[in-house]
Specification:
single chain, 19 strands, seven-stranded antiparallel beta sheet, alpha+beta, binds glycine
């Protein structure tokens, strides 16, 4: 799998270097492979879904409707977010999960901003060199397609923790819709089939996976029903016995047994010792708005805020969306912020993260001062800018309730369908989140990120993430909820959704649809969505030293609370055609 992807990338890079704009999605390993072409005319016409009271936007329409139903029955945004999360584990199995982990950003109606960290942890037997062979070379597939790639899952504890602290409903109540969808099945749409079809060969490798996710050995077709009885039983066990069934009981036992049988290192001690934690969210200001986002072990909020602080003085609104100047300065800000991200950030339980320095006005000014007005800076000239450090699949959804509570969740199994394996008859895919660690300093991971020793594997450590569930406040009240899947492109997709509204005056749907940009330090290319650049602006930028590669970018699921009308404006990303924005 990964070999093919990497060959494709190398080919794409070679073609890009020769000046041709080429098609590749490798930078976003959770892409479902279908990228709608969004013309400028279509972009002009795009409109969000509106609602008066409450709104849910997710990458799968049935999960969205589970959330809307909970809100209509009087549940709050946390109840709905947890119900959507369990439902997505059934109806969006590539990415929604109980076998992975994630983050939840919450703004409560009383003004509190909260952040819940339920990122997976490395097993206690993990070691820094576990993905290298005896010669120190990274072994392809070991961190992505094997049981060694599985981090201790956090989703079930995360959802339970959020619900107990701020929900109003029981675990049983919010899991019930997911159990029904798994037991009775659901009818597949084109978007569902696209993501399942993309992993047919992987599913065929394991009899217990093929029995569920292939239809008599063949890919499911649009209109067919996907039933998941094993997953229904697992969810029922959690609903009846609580999360101990997952962390101390039969579910952990089944995963550990499968791990033992397949060369993994997961133990019952890993599951019993797992913790979900409340953290202080990252906060920064951008043009008068307050941005509330993900702190380490996610790099998302820090990198997003660093980019915003670098670009704030530039007149993006005057320059316009997709203009040579906007592209140039956003790309240069991203390049510098990602160099810092990849050098200085890791799990704060293990390493020091210099957040105050990275997000100081002085640091943004010093990085800004290195941007040349008329030329691209080669990534080889950029280093992590604070001196020596001390030391990707995914889905996003957004929920706002009638009282103004707001919840943004991004959670993941890393690659599409995680490590593509299911332990015994548990019915859920396990993650391959260990690939988010640095397998070897200086060697790119599956998302192409070249990371440092600060993010090396250690027992019990959480791998550095790019997930960026973000709530933007205006005068202390929710203005926008946003976030995306897409490994490193999560950060640039989330960034684009904010500046497309704040700087370029787009409505929420236009801001989500608009072709995006991404630069992550290495590789030294700029990823650009089809239609972002005119041939003339691309030529001007190439003359400044840029090399472009076409990509899809993440899949933003966003809500804007329009301060003029008071209406909620929901926008599902057309890059997830099975998704839906709905409210009441
Ligand atoms: N697995 C993608 C991320 O956490 O960044």
């Amino acid at each position: 799998m990964r070999t093919a992807r990497w060959r494709q990338t190398v080919l794409a890079l070679a073609l890009a270097a020769s000046g041709a704009l080429v098609w590749a999605q490798d930078v976003n390993p959770d892409s479902t492979g279908r990228e709608p072409v969004i013309t400028r005319v279509a972009l002009e016409k795009a409109k969000p879904v509106t609602a008066k009271h409450a709104m849910v936007v997710s990458a799968q329409h049935l999960a969205t409707m589970v959330g809307v139903d909970i809100l209509k029955r009087g549940g709050n945004a946390v109840d709905a977010a947890v119900a959507v999360g369990f439902a997505e584990a059934v109806v969006h199995p590539c990415c929604g999960n109980i076998g992975g982990g994630g983050f939840m950003t919450i703004h409560l109606k009383d003004g509190r901003n909260l952040f819940l960290n339920f990122r997976e942890k490395a097993p206690l037997k993990a070691t820094p060199n576990m993905f290298q062979d005896a010669d120190g070379n990274v072994v392809e597939g070991r961190s992505t397609d094997s049981y060694l790639g599985v981090g201790v899952p956090g989703t079930v504890m995360g959802f339970d923790t959020a619900l107990k602290a701020y929900g109003t409903m029981s675990l049983k109540q919010v899991i019930a819709p997911a159990i029904k969808l798994a037991r009775e099945g659901y009818i597949l749409k084109q978007g569902d089939v696209d993501s399942l079809e993309s992993r047919t060969e992987d599913f065929a490798r394991h009899a217990n996976v093929a029995a569920i996710f292939l239809n008599d050995g063949k890919p499911f077709k649009v209109g067919e029903r996907l039933v998941q009885k094993d997953l229904a039983n697992t969810l029922e066990l959690i609903a009846d016995k609580g999360i101990d069934a997952f962390y101390k009981g039969p579910i952990a036992e089944a995963v550990v047994k499968a791990s033992d049988a397949n060369g993994g290192i997961l133990s019952m001690r890993d599951f019993a010792g797992y913790t979900a934690q409340w953290e202080k969210p990252i906060q920064c200001k951008y043009r008068g708005y307050a941005v509330i986002s993900a702190p380490p072990p996610s790099s998302g909020g820090t990198t997003l805020c660093l980019i915003l602080q670098i670009i704030e003085p530039y007149p993006l609104a005057k320059w316009g969306y997709g203009s040579v100047n906007s592209v140039h300065y956003i790309v240069e800000a991203e390049r510098r912020a990602f160099a810092d991200r990849n050098t200085y950030l890791g799990d704060p339980a293990f390493v020091h993260n210099p957040i105050d320095e990275l997000l100081s006005a002085e640091h943004a000014a010093s990085l800004r001062a290195t941007i040349k007005p008329d030329r691209a800076t080669p990534s080889s000239e950029i280093k992590g800018s604070l001196g020596a450090p001390e030391g990707n699949h995914t889905t996003h959804y957004s929920v706002v309730d009638k009282d103004g509570n707001a919840v943004a969740v991004t959670y993941t199994v890393n690659f599409l369908f995680g490590n593509k394996q299911i332990a015994g008859n548990t019915g859920f895919f396990l993650n391959d989140e260990m690939d988010d660690f640095t397998s070897k300093p200086g060697v790119a991971n599956g998302a192409g990120l070249v990371q440092g020793v600060i993010n090396q594997v250690e027992p019990g450590k959480r791998p550095l993430s790019s997930m960026t569930p973000t709530i933007v406040l205006r005068k202390g009240k929710p203005f926008m909820l946003t976030g995306s899947p897409g490994s490193a492109t999560i950060i640039s997709s989330t960034l684009a959704s904010i500046i497309n509204v704040v700087d370029f005056g787009m409505n929420m749907q236009q801001a989500v649809n608009a072709p995006r940009l991404h630069q992550q330090w290495y590789p030294d290319v700029v990823y650009a969505g089809q239609g972002l650049l005119t041939p003339e602006s691309q030529k001007s930028l190439e003359a400044m030293g840029y090399t472009f590669q076409q990509f899809s970018g993440g899949a933003v699921e966003a809500i804007l609370i329009n301060p003029k009308t008071g209406l909620l404006e929901g926008a599902n990303d057309p890059r997830r055609p099975a998704g839906l924005a709905a409210g009441y």
